[in-house]
Amino acid sequence: MTTPHTPEDRFGAAVASRLPRTTLLRESYRSLLATGRTYAAFTKQERAYVERLVDRGVILDPMSGYGGLMMESAKIGIDSYNLEMNPPQHLWQVLTNRRIAERMPGAIGKLMSIRKRNVAGKRTVCSDTFFPDECYDLLCDLLSAIEDVLSSEAGLKREAKKFAAALLLPFSGRLCCCTPGDNSAHVKEGGICVLKDWRTDFHAYLEVLLQFLHRVSTESQSSRHENYNGDARIFEFPKKRFRSMLTSPPYPNHRDFEAIFRPENELLRKLSQDGNTISFVDPSAVIGTNIVSRLSPSTPTVPSAIKFMDKISTLKRTKQATYDDAVYYFPYLREYFAALESAYSNVSKAAASDFLGYIVVVNNTHRGVVVPVAEAIVDIWKKLGFSSRIEHAEESFHLGTKNPRAKGIRARHTEYVVEVRR
């Protein structure tokens, strides 16, 4: 067996030994707990840009995902301001914020000492929903127990409901009826949930979470990180507050970004309807959603996006491809570019007079034509009166991803860093 060399490798190996696959936690959370990274993770290149902004105060990330910027900036003592629309991703940020992470061990210790918990009446349950009554009742009891403990802890009791939801959510997949989707990040509604030994698995989850939060606390050099749940297109940012920004938008890869956490979002909606937790923004229309029925008829206005839409509309296609473009791809791509325009227009109001920002983005393709996301972002910020340019570009080939047969330009992904200045 190969010995892990890096701290991340050693920590991941230690977690794996305590959190086997039989705990049935969802893959995204297993990865987050093991390494702090998962789908759309923070890269080494992005870490270098954090260091460029070290003397410019609080860094803004208006599309902050799992909080990668917060984690990296905390390590070198920079504070951050993070906005994320998808509630599960926002709650992961809340849970791993150093200010919360260093207060959680006492609460987790108390939770681990509570041995008498609701006992499931069945060993397994089969359902065509994510959370049948047996599973939902267990999760509600757990949420209530967590909230009771947090309500007695200094620094946690004021927002005990939110922190309880943040602590419960990574474990909720263990009590979920779901089956794997067409890629590792997605699942389908319905399946079999094994209720036997769920309490043992919850205890194992708390042990690993305790280790992870300890690591966050010891590695972080700053703790003033703000985390908000909201839509960058309409969120009320502090006016002209930020001198720096590092962010990355969702990419137009025809996936529903809400669906990555569909079970967790369903649980949060159900809990909110029953008055058991706080409410969150509706993530059903996150930027990049591929559910076109949710989209409003929007049209991009910047030159690169218009040119791209005109080009793909004149391609020679089969009858089926023409139909698919008309009812799905064209509305999806138009809305994607229009949503970016709306978001960055709103974000720009938060930029100070000496603003410097970096936006990391990947261009992919549609029917053999490069989708010009980076170019569109440059155009958007220029239209808003900023100086904007592509500061760095690096080409890579991703074979064996969702379409392992992709070759040539269809497999080519180029990562860009867009620089924005005022």
List the defining traits of the structure above.
17% strand; two-stranded antiparallel ribbon; 422 residues; globular; seven-stranded mixed sheet; alpha/beta
Question: What does the model show?
Answer:
The chain has 422 residues and is α/β, with parallel strands linked by helices. It is 42% helix and 17% strand. It has 14 helices and 13 strands. It has helices at 7-18, 27-35, 44-52, 68-75, 87-96, 98-101, 104-113, 133-150, 160-172, 198-219, 262-273, 303-313, 319-347, 373-383; strands at 59-61, 80-84, 124-127, 178-180, 187-189, 191-194, 226-229, 242-247, 351-363, 365-366, 369-370, 387-397, 412-421. The strands form four sheets. A seven-stranded mixed beta sheet has the order 7-2-1-8-9-13-12. Strands 3-6 form a two-stranded antiparallel sheet. Strands 4-5 form a two-stranded antiparallel ribbon. A hairpin with a 2-residue loop joins strand 10 (365-366) and strand 11 (369-370). The longest helix is centred in the C-terminal third of the chain and has 29 residues, at 319-347. The protein is globular, with a radius of gyration of 22 Å. It starts with 6 loop residues before the first helix and ends with a strand. The model is unreliable at 7-12 (pLDDT under 50).
Give a short synopsis of this structure.
With 422 residues, this protein is of the alpha/beta class.
Strand content: 15-25%
| Widest beta sheet: strand line-up | 7-2-1-8-9-13-12
Give the low-pLDDT segments: 7-12
Number of helices: 14
Helical content band:
40-55%
Structural class from helices and strands?
A: alpha/beta
What integer value in Å does the Rg equal?
Answer: 22 Å
Molecular shape: globular
Count the beta strands.
13
Query: Cα distance, first to last residue?
Result: 53 Å
Averaged pLDDT, please?
86
Q: Report on the biggest sheet.
A: 7 strands, mixed
Task: Tell me the series of helices and strands, N- to C-terminal.
Answer: HHHEHEHHHEHHEEEHEEHHHEEEHEE
